[in-house]
Amino acid sequence: MQLSFFLKLIVFVLTVFCVFCKKENNRNPAPSIGPVKYEIIGKYIGYLTVVYTDTEFANTTIIFTFFPWSKELTYSGNVKGLG
User: Fold this and answer.
1) How far apart are CA 77 and CA 38, in angstroms?
2) Whether the Cβ atoms of residue 34 and residue 74 lie closer than 8 Å to each other
3) d(C-alpha 36, C-alpha 42), whole Å
4) Averaged over 52-70, what is the pLDDT?
5) What distance, in Å, lies between the first and last C-alpha atoms of the chain?
6) In sequence order, which residues have a C-beta less than 8 Å from that of residue 29 and are 6 or more positions away?
7) Is residue 47 left, alpha or beta, with left meaning phi > 0 and alpha meaning psi from -120 to 50?
8) 83 near 52, Cβ under 8 Å?
9) How high is the pLDDT of residue 23?
10) Residue 39 — φ and ψ, nearest 5°?
11) For 8-54, how does the pLDDT look when each residue is reduced to its tens digit (9 = 90+)?
């Protein structure tokens, strides 16, 4: 008797879980963000290090001595922040 009760309880809980935890079918891809333009202008003599997040979500480091400098990137819509 007790085993039957627990089996019914497990079936009930699994049924409720499956009904209310339905997966969303988001077939539309996230829209792109951009273009985002990183830009440095001015008069400076020396070395400058720039670190930015590329479109593969990895940090890219550039060391340069010439100005002006700019980089334009288009990110996917699932980006939470840029740097």
Assistant:
1) 18
2) yes
3) 20
4) 80
5) 62
6) 76, 77
7) beta
8) yes
9) 60
10) -150, 135
11) 777 777 776 666 665 666 566 666 666 888 888 888 788 888 888 77
In the beta sheet, which residues pair with residue 75?
A: 33
Using one digit for the tens of pLDDT, what is the confidence trace for 39-51? 888 887 888 888 8
Q: Is the dihedral of CA 12, 13, 18, 22 positive or negative?
A: positive
φ and ψ at 13, to 5 degrees?
Answer: -65, -45
Q: Give the pair of three-digit tokens for residue 15.
A: 């049924």
Phi, psi for 9 (deg, rounded to 5): -65, -45
